[in-house]
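Encode chain A's predicted structure.
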Amino acid sequence: MEGSNEQDKAKKGLEGTAIDLPTNRRVNLKSATSDDDFTNILAHIKSSKTPAVIKYGAPWCPVCIQILPAFCRLSNNFPKLTFVYTDIDECPETTQHIRYTPTFQFYRNGEKVDEMYGAGGEERLHDRLWLHS
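Encoded structure for chain A:
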């Protein structure tokens, strides 16, 4: 029993949320599990100029947990966008500028072009994704 408990603690990113999340069929959903990982993902977004959305959240944030399944589900509807889930507790150095959870940042041509705070429901998130896709 102790072994499985240690395995659960070792899970990070989307796997560490312990939520049954929709499957991403497009391979455009990434999970930053450390500061180095987040730095590499962000550098790729900026250099590739691929449109992207980064969701900053935490497993202790009820609103973050509520919107996370929709975030994963919507990643299937917007295949040209890169979706990134970032747990602020797993990436403390690179996310110290985040003041509200959840925060969504939208990138286009390597530059941050928009930011949205709070969940506001799946429809609001869908509309913002549509705007930036």
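The longest strand covers residues 111-117.
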